[in-house]
Amino acid sequence: MTAREANLSATLRSTPFAVALALAGVAMIAWECGGTTVPDLTALRSFLLPSPNLWFAGSPATGCFVNLACLAAVAMLMVWINARFSVVRDYSATFIGFFLVMTAATPIAVAAFTGATMLALVVLAAVAMLMSVYSEPRLSRRIFLAFYVVAVASFTQYAFVAYAVIFVAGLIQLRAFTERSLTAALLGIAAAPLPAICLALWLGIGGLRRPEIVNIYQTWAGEDIVRLWVTVGFTIALGSALGIVNLLKIYSLNARSRALNGLLSTVSFITAAMAVIDFTNMPVYIVLLNALTAFQANYFMKLYERRRSYLLVLALPVVYVGFFAWMAAV
Fold first, then answer.
1. What pLDDT score was predicted for residue 221?
2. Distance between CA atoms of 249 and 245, rounded to whole angstroms?
3. Rounded to an integer, what distance in angstroms lies between the CA atom of residue 325 and that of residue 54?
4. Per 3-state DSSP, what percentage of the chain is helix, strand, and coil (rounded to 5)?
5. Distance between CA atoms of 293 and 297, rounded to whole angstroms?
6. Contact 249/304 with Cβ under 8 angstroms?
7. Using N-to-C axis directions, what is the helix angle for 286-303 and 94-104, rounded to 10°?
8. Which of 20, 188, 251, 306 gives 20 to 30 Å between its CA and that of 9?
9. Ramachandran assignment for 175, one of left (phi > 0), alpha (psi -120 to 50 degrees), beta (any other)
10. Phi, psi (5° rounding) for residue 90?
């Protein structure tokens, strides 16, 4: 890498560039609010409580504002995870700009408040709690809380159910799987129905029900479906490729780095698989998928810093702004 390329790489990984990229993503998301039809706002995708897409269905403006606030919370949580549990020592915030621009390219996930942002916020919070117990299974309260919040959320959106299973495997990866930690996890799941049932009774909901499986594509034009799947498909391919390439370097790092990356990679793989398998509910996985891909992009920038990884920083915003323009085209 030449001196000029090194300076360019440093600029692209700087805080001012990260802020500019993040502001561009926020502006794109704000522009989409109220201007994009979200087709699953009437679907009840839960076992008991109203699903998130119904919470602000009568007030789109409020829902959009809440969604923006939740996206900001997701971004801040990502910054904290990167600083506290980073696989590689890197404090660049450019990946937050990636996350916001990537999310703006899929307006179906951000034009109104749905389960997409809630899934990202809850799952990443639970992942952070699990990361904090690496090789420390005695920290059973954190394990209990991680499983508890995911289990409670599953009563509002069935997509959360898969992550309770993933996190059991995560305890093994994090060297925290013992009888005590497993008991804490099971107690967290067992305690979840109580607040859900109490809230359901307060809302006048009679009992459990089967989530509605609604074909969100039946009211879409064929071109809109193609746009969505091309964008999401590219994100899945990008995240998978970066994860594999990063693994080649991370494998030579210490056990802690391998374990933390292993948890993120497992969650990424399952999220991508669920987006395809549960295709009628695919939009709910988009924000989390974008966040996990942004983490891998951040690792790639650091691990391959001397091999022109700055090209990724240049290419990603261009590609996703292109997707944004394509999705916004009438």
1. 63
2. 7
3. 28
4. 75, 0, 25
5. 6
6. yes
7. 150
8. 251
9. left
10. -155, 130
